[in-house]
């Protein structure tokens, strides 16, 4: 036996030595490569591909290192019409090497899957994954090389003919990695080379796009730093004067790159684009990206007055990021000429606009042309909604942009149903058809309302008219206001002021505020007050103003006008469509301020220059972070901290956000959702059953404990995000029954109402299978998104359940019997619902458009994992455990009781085990508890009997321990609670806020413990609340901290996060009463087992 072990060790050692040799070889090759190329790693990566190059081909290839070497290195390779570049990884922005195709003489296939690139200085050898892949690369490179040979002009080996425009060049020392490089500025890029000779040979290292670069001084007088979004490049030169010349040249290059003259020149290549679409001024530098017209500066100003929902004005020179390749193609393919065939088809000569027109004429003409559509060429299908929708679905699959523009502005529904479940909207249909330019035109018009009648005065410049208002208030308006509470006022918005007067003729202002002082605008639901339509304005001073009218269009115009006057331009697109908008203090915002627009469940947030859209239903968590009321919204984009504000607008924001974040008693679309759009309660239940119940016999047919199901469902409906399902806490039958009860009770059900239920049941009666499946697909596509994703997730789960029917006995028929009545809200006497469920399971792939191979692979993987879990389960029945030291009655050295504590052991079980080990039997009137003792602070906390021991034990410091002793207060506490009718406690206590060890000052405070909150008032009850804490988040300790010289020995210590409050009672009875109420609130009355 010993000999075999020795031989095994020798073999392992030999293998280890061989690996070392291979590693040494590999290291030598890597060093050779480093001598040739420079490793320029990015510290940040782009969120999307910002490729200004037209990539011909890209992919992974293996290449040999320079100067020989047998080990290939895997590189991401990109080929465009000028260069072949290779990168360390697919994410890197800066190449390790770039080879100008002007320096390449030929490309040659070698062996099965390799090819060689022969340049004038060296040969590059690459290896593809297959011969076909190699042939594709060779074909692409040969095509580019043949195109270059047709040029007869003298060649620059690195830059293409006509593209040489070097403004500065020379050697610099790069500091990280430290190496000397030859550098030159050509047009709007900085190129790096190993040497001047390599430049002439047509081989470089990388190029840096100067459009997003910034130049600043370095740490010493001869260095400077070039900063890009992806990394910083530090350079050093020989003298200060040379550094000055380089800095000036680079800054000039940045300025030149940002001017975007190339974009203007590209779009102006179309002759009609060289004149303004409205007044014919030359060389327009502005555009309306949704109306597809180019504009001069004066006409662009008039377009802005129409609002972002009518005309989205962008600059050709300043708004560089807007101009994607597809958007540029829209303007090249349409141009002002074709666009005006639609917009200006019927302009009479007398109403045409000239370049010298004054601003009023310009605004009047542009409003008539684009907003009112006065001169447009009406589509032949105008007024026939279904025919227009069908025409749009056809047009987006073709290259006819003018037809699409005409349809979009003649009443078509841009989000109409295409009738194809896989591609339900015209936008998805255009993308499927490869019509990316059509898709760009659709995206630019998604939020446009070109012909919605809006009063002309509803612009940002001015708005006036009669409204009805109530007296302003310093508190939120929660009570119903009748019409008698309102007074008519003439209101005016303009020149940065919102004012109101007694009448239109009155010159004396009754009140008003600057628009910059409006911090919130909130739109009330119709009928909330006496006037049908109302909105509220909140000022910086903390005042609330309520305005109303019975005319909804008047209120809509005012909301739009005020929103445009208050919001930053980046949020103009949502003006008039918000339920609530304004600014809030936010740690992530610019200077601590963020702008927020809430519309339905969508919260648009402007932080600095970035607008983010948050679906409040899909929040990961929503917390009131402290007693002051600050909110923390955690979504997939990260946390968002809304700081508390005592002004009345903040309470409204809290209410709105909590309401819109999903409620458990609402239809599926209004529930808390996962990122995939499935209600959290359904997702958590399905996940739990999948983990622990797929092998359980009769899963879903067996019922859980009714009280457990009711309690769990209540928890989910209160806040589904906060519910964590552990195997030790809930049986799979409890969770499965909770899911069934929720699906049966949820409003409108999974199929979205009784009418839709009937449609699904009728479809089951079709005899032709193909026709039936097609009908199911149509019904599925007509469901709201949340209902459709929920049904798909549920049926996928049931497919997994029936796949293991040999183990769980739940065949398709059994699942149909269970879920038919559940989903269709019937009593089960009609078996049609069960038939529908069975057919959805049987035809899951066809109806839900799922690949059968993918489903099979998932099912096989599930079977393997569950079978492995099943085989290992008997070995892991005993939970992991830890030996813990616990003291009995008092702590003395060497007197600890060592107990094996499992992960699921509770405090009551620990007490029982310790007493049994010590041979102590509890008398009838004797109660034992476990305490967390903080020795340093002379205080202890009674642990609740259901708390788990291990988390507490692991959190103990070196100056604390667990102590089991008799509980002398529990009888008094329980008897007191038996005689209390209203569970609350108020009264004066001596209070000291413990900020340090020197804190010794006690003040008399009126304390209130009621509901779920503990409050401190400076004076008697009803005075201003000084502090407020949620009871369930507090920890209560007892003790007399003698170092603080408390006025009485009966002390309570409340700990919330890092705050501590020491409360002194007048006597022991008062201490018992406060403790009793606190425990009862914190543990929902469940203080002691079987009392």
Walk me through the structure.
Pfam families: ArfGap, PH, RA, RhoGAP. It is found in: Cytoplasm. Residues 261-387 form the Arf-GAP domain. This is ArfGAP with RhoGAP domain, ankyrin repeat and PH domain 1a. The protein has 1091 residues and is α+β, with helices and mostly antiparallel strands. It is 34% helix and 24% strand. It is built from 30 helices and 44 strands. The strands form six sheets. A twelve-stranded mixed beta sheet has the order 34-33-37-35-36-42-43-44-38-39-40-41. The protein has an eleven-stranded antiparallel beta sheet with strand order 22-21-20-19-25-24-23-26-27-28-29. An eight-stranded antiparallel beta sheet has the order 5-6-7-1-2-3-4-11.
Radius of gyration: 37 Å
How much helix, percentage-wise, in residues? 25-40%
Instruction: Identify low-pLDDT runs.
Output: 1-6, 12-35, 47-52, 450-461, 874-879
* Assigned CATH superfamily of the largest domain: Rho GTPase activation protein
Shape: globular
Please name the defining characteristics of this protein.
1091 residues; alpha+beta; eleven-stranded antiparallel beta sheet; PH-domain like; twelve-stranded mixed beta sheet; 30 helices
Q: Which helices and strands, and how do they pair?
A:
Blueprint: H1 2-36, E1 57-63, E2 73-79, E3 83-87, E4 97-100, E5 104-110, E6 114-119, E7 123-127, H2 131-149, E8 166-175, E9 178-186, E10 189-193, H3 196-201, E11 203-204, E12 206-209, E13 214-217, E14 223-227, E15 232-236, H4 240-258, H5 261-267, E16 286-288, E17 293-295, H6 297-305, E18 313-315, H7 325-333, H8 335-343, H9 359-371, H10 385-395, H11 401-408, H12 426-432, H13 436-444, E19 462-469, E20 487-494, E21 497-501, E22 509-514, E23 518-523, E24 533-539, E25 544-549, H14 552-566, E26 580-590, E27 593-599, E28 602-607, E29 610-615, E30 621-624, E31 631-635, E32 638-642, H15 648-660, H16 680-692, H17 706-719, H18 732-745, H19 754-763, H20 769-782, H21 785-803, H22 805-808, H23 812-824, H24 832-842, H25 844-848, H26 852-872, E33 881-888, E34 897-902, H27 907-917, E35 928-934, E36 939-942, H28 949-955, E37 960-966, H29 970-978, E38 984-993, E39 1003-1010, E40 1013-1017, E41 1025-1030, E42 1035-1039, E43 1050-1056, E44 1059-1065, H30 1068-1082
Parallel strand pairs: 33-37
Antiparallel strand pairs: 1-2, 1-7, 2-3, 3-4, 4-11, 5-6, 6-7, 8-9, 8-15, 9-10, 10-12, 13-14, 14-15, 16-17, 16-18, 19-20, 19-25, 20-21, 21-22, 23-24, 23-26, 24-25, 26-27, 27-28, 28-29, 30-31, 31-32, 33-34, 35-36, 35-37, 36-42, 38-39, 38-44, 39-40, 40-41, 42-43, 43-44
Helix pairs in contact: 6-9, 7-13, 10-11, 11-13, 12-13, 16-18, 16-21, 17-18, 18-23, 19-20, 21-24, 23-24, 29-30
């Amino acid at each position: 036996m010993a000999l075999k072990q020795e031989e095994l060790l020798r073999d392992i050692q030999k293998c280890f030595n061989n690996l070392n040799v291979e590693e040494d070889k590999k290291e030598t090759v890597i060093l050779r490569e480093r001598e040739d190329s420079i490793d320029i790693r990015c510290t940040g990566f782009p969120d999307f591909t910002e490729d200004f190059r037209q990539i011909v081909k890209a992919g992974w290839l293996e290449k040999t290192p320079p100067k020989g070497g047998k080990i290939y290195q895997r590189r991401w390779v990109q080929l465009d019409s000028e260069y072949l570049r290779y990168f360390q990884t697919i994410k890197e922005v800066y190449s390790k090497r770039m080879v100008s195709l002007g320096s390449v003489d030929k490309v040659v296939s070698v062996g099965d899957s390799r090819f060689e690139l022969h340049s004038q200085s060296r040969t590059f050898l690459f290896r593809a994954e297959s011969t076909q892949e190699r042939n594709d690369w060779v074909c692409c490179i040969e095509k580019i090389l043949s195109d270059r040979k047709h040029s007869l002009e003298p060649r620059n080996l690195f830059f293409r003919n006509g593209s040489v425009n070097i403004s500065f060049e020379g050697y610099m020392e790069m500091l990280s990695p430290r190496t000397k490089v030859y550098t030159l500025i050509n047009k709007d890029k900085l190129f790096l080379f190993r040497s001047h000779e390599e430049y002439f040979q047509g081989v470089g290292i990388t190029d840096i796009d100067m459009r997003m670069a910034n130049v600043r001084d370095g740490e010493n007088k001869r260095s400077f730093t070039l900063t890009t979004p992806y990394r910083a490049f530090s350079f050093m030169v020989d003298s200060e004067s040379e550094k000055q010349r380089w800095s000036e040249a680079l800054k000039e290059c940045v300025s030149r790159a940002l001017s975007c003259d190339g974009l203007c020149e590209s779009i102006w290549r179309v002759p009609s684009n060289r004149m303004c679409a409205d007044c014919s001024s030359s060389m327009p530098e502005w555009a309306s990206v949704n109306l597809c017209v180019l504009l001069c500066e004066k006409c662009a100003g008039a377009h802005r007055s129409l609002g972002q929902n009518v005309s989205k004005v962008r600059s050709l020179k300043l708004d560089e990021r807007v101009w994607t390749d597809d958007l540029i193609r829209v303007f090249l393919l349409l141009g002002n000429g074709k666009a005006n065939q639609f917009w200006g088809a019927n302009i009479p000569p007398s109403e045409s606009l000239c370049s010298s027109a004054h601003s009023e004429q310009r605004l009047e003409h542009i409003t008539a042309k684009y907003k009112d559509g006065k001169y447009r060429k009406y589509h032949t299908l105008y007024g026939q909604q279904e025919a227009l929708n069908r025409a749009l679905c056809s047009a987006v699959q073709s290259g006819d942009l003018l037809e699409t523009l005409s349809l979009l502005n003649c009443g078509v529904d841009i989000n109409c149903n295409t009738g194809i479940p896989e591609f339900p909207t015209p936008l998805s249909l255009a993308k499927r058809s490869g019509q990316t330019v059509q898709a760009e035109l659709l995206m630019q018009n998604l939020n446009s309302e070109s012909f919605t009648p809006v009063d002309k005065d509803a612009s940002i410049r001015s708005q006036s008219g009669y409204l009805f208002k109530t007296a302003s208030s310093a508190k939120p308006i929660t009570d119903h206001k009748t019409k008698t509470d309102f007074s008519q006022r003439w209101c005016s918005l303009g020149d940065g002021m919102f004012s109101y007067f007694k009448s239109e003729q009155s010159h004396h202002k009754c009140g008003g505020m600057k628009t910059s002082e409006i911090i919130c605008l909130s739109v009330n639901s119709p009928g909330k007050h006496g006037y049908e339509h109302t909105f509220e304005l909140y000022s910086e001073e903390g005042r609330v103003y309520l305005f109303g009218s019975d005319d909804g269009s008047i209120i809509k115009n005012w909301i739009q006008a005020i929103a445009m006057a208050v919001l930053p331009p980046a949020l103009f697109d949502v003006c008039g469509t918000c339920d609530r908008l304004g600014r809030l203090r936010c740690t992530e915002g610019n200077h601590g301020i963020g702008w927020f627009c809430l519309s339905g469940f969508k919260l648009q947030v402007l932080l600095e220059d970035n607008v983010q859209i948050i679906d409040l239903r899909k929040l990961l968590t929503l917390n009131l972070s402290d007693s002051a009321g600050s909110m923390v919204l955690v979504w997939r984009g990260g946390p968002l901290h809304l700081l508390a504000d005592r002004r009345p607008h903040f309470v409204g924001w809290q209410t709105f956000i909590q309401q819109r974040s999903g409620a458990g008693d609402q239809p599926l679309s209004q529930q808390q959702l996962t990122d995939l759009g499935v209600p959290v309660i359904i997702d958590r239940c399905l996940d739990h059953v999948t983990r622990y119940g797929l092998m359980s016999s009769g899963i879903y047919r067996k019922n859980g404990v009714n009280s457990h199901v009711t309690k769990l469902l209540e928890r989910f409906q209160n806040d589904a995000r906060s519910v964590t399902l552990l195997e030790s806490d809930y049986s799979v039958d409890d969770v499965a029954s909770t899911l069934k009860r929720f699906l049966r009770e949820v409003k409108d059900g999974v199929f979205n109402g009784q009418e839709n239920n009937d449609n699904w049941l009728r479809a089951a009666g079709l005899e032709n299978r193909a026709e039936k499946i097609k009908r199911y697909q149509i019904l599925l596509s007509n469901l709201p998104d949340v209902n459709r994703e929920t049904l798909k997730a549920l049926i996928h789960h049931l497919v997994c359940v029936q796949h293991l029917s040999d183990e769980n006995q739940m065949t398709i028929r059994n699942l149909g019997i269970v879920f038919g009545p559940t989903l269709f809200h019937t009593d089960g006497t009609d078996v049609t619902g069960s038939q529908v469920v069975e057919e959805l399971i049987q035809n899951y792939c066809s109806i839900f458009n799922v690949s059968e191979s993918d489903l099979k692979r998932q099912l096989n993987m599930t079977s393997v994992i569950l079978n492995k879990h099943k085989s290992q389960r008997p070995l892991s029945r005993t939970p992991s455990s830890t030996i813990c030291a616990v003291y009995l009655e008092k702590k003395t050295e060497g007197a600890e009781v060592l107990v094996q504590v499992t992960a699921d052991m509770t405090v009551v079980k620990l007490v029982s085990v310790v007493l049994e080990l010590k041979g102590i039997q509890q008398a009838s009137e004797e109660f034992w508890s476990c305490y967390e003792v903080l020795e340093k602070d002379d205080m202890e906390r009674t642990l609740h009997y259901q708390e788990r021991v291990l988390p507490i034990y692991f959190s103990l410091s070196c100056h604390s321990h667990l102590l089991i002793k008799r509980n002398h207060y529990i009888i008094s506490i329980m008897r007191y609670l038996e005689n209390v009718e209203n569970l609350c406690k108020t009264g004066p206590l001596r209070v000291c806020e413990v900020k340090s060890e020197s804190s010794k000052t006690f003040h008399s405070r009126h304390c209130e413990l009621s509901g779920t909150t503990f409050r401190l008032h400076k004076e008697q009850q009803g005075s201003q609340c000084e502090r407020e804490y949620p009871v369930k988040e507090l920890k209560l300790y007892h003790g007399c901290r003698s170092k603080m010289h408390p006025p009485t020995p009966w002390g309570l210590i409340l700990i919330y996060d890092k705050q501590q409050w020491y409360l002194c009672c007048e006597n022991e009875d008062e201490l018992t009463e406060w403790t009793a109420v606190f425990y009862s609130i914190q543990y929902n009355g469940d203080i002691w087992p079987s009392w």
